[in-house]
Description:
This protein is α+β, with helices and mostly antiparallel strands. It has one domain (5-134). Helices cover 18% and strands 38% of the residues. The longest helix is centred in the last third of the chain and has 17 residues, at 108-124. The termini are close together.
Amino acid sequence: MSIGIGGDARLVLQDEEMLIFEYCPYNLNDKRYRNEDRVYDGVITICKDALLEPEIREKLKRMSSGRKRMITKRIVRPVDYEALLASGKIEVENSRFCYKILTCGIGCIAMRLIEHLFDTYQRDGIVKEAISFYY
């Protein structure tokens, strides 16, 4: 069962130095923040050098057939989002549909989208064109 909150983001511009996403949050429980038309009026700007690479571990594993095989694991490293926000490596223009602003001045949905973006980048090794999540 869903709580009824979530957000979507899509990549608008990508160059050698920056990623720019536009995003739209929604809260289906409150008529003021429902965003039924999915208006993408928030902006998330991320410097590419802020994207952390995962820790790569390789180990030799014995398979059931008796052969050995090299297994590669990508281990997600923790990201200090507050330091990246303070240094200007991540900038956010909040959407008008933000129903909750965190102490750092960013909407909670924008922060969750940023966390989801960093997590998928470390797991897959690519920046996705579109990301979304919902509770």
